[in-house]
Model the fold of this input.
Amino acid sequence: MNNNRIERVLAKMEEKNLTQMIVCDPMSIRYLTGIWVQPFERLYALLLKADGKHTFFLNHLFYIPKTPFIEVWYSDMDDYVGMIADAVDPEKPLGIDKEWPAKFLISLQERLPQMKTVLGSDCVDDCRAVKDAEEIELMTEASRINDVVIERAAAYVHDGITEKELADFIDAEYKKMGCSGNSFDTIVSFGPNAADQHHEPDSNAVLQDGQCVLIDMGCVWKNYCSDMTRTYYWKSVDDEQKKIHDLVREANEAAEAIIKPGVRFCDIDAEARKVINGAGYGEYWKIRLGHFIGQVDHEKGDVSPTNTAVAEPGMIFSIEPGIYIPDKYGVRIEDLVLVTEDGYQLLNHVDKKWKVLGE
Ligand SMILES: [Mn+2]
Done:
């Protein structure tokens, strides 16, 4: 159990006048308790109470060590929603995890029609957004591994390689480095395929001279994710590709340069957009600049024109501007950034200038 983290969540609940809340996202529960259960369709919930009397609802199938919480064990034949109804205070609002299945929530609402239910996940998600020292160490290591593996991948590119072959190489390297897996399916796209931002590596796409090689990849290291994108060029690069690459790199660096505590996310986004829009390429970049990351690749929080929240020390998010020209090519340059007490620190260190491979 992580008392610090639970205390932080209880403080957020107090701000929202919540005295009770259901947490069910297995990653949120692991974050608070250190316990990992994959419940699939079964009910799995931690009921947090302002008075510290937290209750864990567990199916006999779940195999976990003894916890410091009040444990309520149920079988598949029990009235488990009724057990939750007995444990909550129907006179007070109940915070609900955004991941709690409607089959449990609506059933509970039908039993306790007088009880108000409100979305409560922000209490946990806003804590998860600000990483503590242990998490920062794990995410720094996940990004260090990503730096090593992308350099190996760039060196592995050869004549006749397909997107799928390069993606498989990256995944195998992660395994060799001891990663438990990928934070998302590795993206490798050559030439025109790079205009498709979430392109799936194709076993028929063979690398041609002069094409760009966009690699967007992330591993999972001790439950924490990395995420980085670099764009390379095979055998040669033309002037237009160089110009677009430099623009994206400038947008990436301009945005990163202003990051420090107190800066609004919309203003970080605007720095990158100024560079790309100013050069007339705005129509080729229509998505947000970045996303938060932690136990999953995309966590609550983003770097976008509509997010007026401010950066705080300990937050980790991506900065990933791009220019995507349909039927031609795409360029994306992505780093993970950690907000420090007086500025920022990049978690990725791979060079961002355009680079020709195979020369
Ligand atoms: Mn990303």
Remarks:
- The two ends are 54 Å apart (CA to CA).
- The pocket of manganese (II) ion is lined by residues 227, 291, 318, 320, 334 (CB under 6 Å).
- The chain has a mean pLDDT of 97.
- The first strand starts at residue 20 and ends at 23.
